[in-house]
Amino acid sequence: MTVTSQRVVTTRSARANAHIGRHAQTIAIAVVLVVLLIFFAFSADRFATTGNLLNLLRQIAPTLVVATAMTFVISTSGIDLSVGSTVALSGSLLAIVLQHGWNPTLALVAILALGALIGFVNGWFSSYQNIPPFIVTLAMLSIMRGTALRATEGYSTPIDGDLWIVQIGQGRIAGVPVPAILAVVVALVGWLVLTRTPFGRYVIGLGSNGESLRRTGVNTRKVGLTVYVLTGLAAAVAGVLIATRLSSGSSNAGSGFELEVITAVVLGGTSLFGGRASMLGTILGALTLGVIANGLVLLHVSPFYVQIVQGGILLLAIFANSKVWAKFGAIRK
C-alpha cells in the first residue's frame, strides 16, 4: 500500500470514528430499542401484533410531540417542568368549553393559543427577567395544575363523541392513528428546523455559548422566548390529543408527564447542559419509553413499576450524558 493510500484510509477511518463519536448516544439508544423490541416480541404474545404496535404509536404521540419541542428548550440549557400541568389544563378546558356549546374549531384554536401564552409567560420570565427556568416553570406547574383543579372541581368532564374534534385522538387515516401521524409530522418538522435552519443553529449556539451568539447580533432573548412558546403550544396539542382520545378532560391528566418527556429527550442524547441536541435521539427515546411501558403491561407487570423504571432510566441517562459521553467527546477532541 502506498503512502497516499495509507493516508486516505487513515483519514476515512478518522472521519468514521468522529461520526460515530458525534452520534454515539443515538446509536446506543437505537441498539437498546432494538433489543427491547426483540425481547418483548418473544416474551409477550400480543406485543408484535399490528393492533398493539399501532396502539403503541398512538399512546406515545403526546410524549413525542412535547419531547420534540422540549429538545429545543433543553438545547438552550433550559427546562420546562410545566408541560404536564399544561396538558391537564388544556384537556380540561377543552372539555369544559365544548360542553358549554363552543364551536369545536374555535375551542381548538383557543386551547392552542392558551398553550402558547403559557409558554410565552415561561419564556418572558426566563429570558427577559433572567429568572432560572427551573424556578419559573416549577411555579407555573403549580399554577396550571391548581387552575385545572379549580376549573373541573376535581371531576372529569366528558366530550361528546359525535363532535368532529374527537377524531383528532381517535381517528385513523389508512389504518394509522391520527395522533401517530401528527406526532411524526411534528418530529419531522422539528428535525428540519433544528438541523436545517438558522433558528436551529441559534438554539444550539445559545446553549453552548450564549454570550458569543449575542455578540454576533442575534437576539438571544427572543430565541429563548420562542422555544418556550413552542413547548407550551406542544403541551396544549398533547392535552388535546389525550382529551379527545379518552373523550374527556381531567385535571389529573399529565401527572408525571414532564418526567417522561425529559427522560425521552435526555435519553436520546440531548445535553441537559445545552449546546448538543439530537432530534432523532429524542424520537428513539420516546419510542423506547413507550415500548417499555407497553411491554411491561403485556407481561402483567404492575403499572406502578413503570414510573420506577422511567426514573431509573432518567438517572442512568443523565449519568451517561454528563460522564460517559462527555469523556467520549473529550477523547474525540
Automatic annotation (TrEMBL):
Protein topology in the membrane: Multi-pass membrane protein
Membrane-spanning intervals of the chain: 24-44, 81-98, 105-125, 173-194, 223-243, 277-298, 304-326
This protein's record includes keyword GTP-binding: no
Keywords: Cell membrane, Membrane, Transmembrane, Transmembrane helix
Keyword DNA damage: no
Pfam families for the chain: BPD_transp_2
InterPro entries: ABC_transp_permease
Localization of this protein: Cell membrane
PANTHER family xrefs: ABC TRANSPORTER PERMEASE PROTEIN YPHD-RELATED-RELATED, RIBOSE IMPORT PERMEASE PROTEIN RBSC
Protein name stated in the entry: Ribose ABC transporter permease
Natural source organism: Microbispora siamensis
Gene: yphD
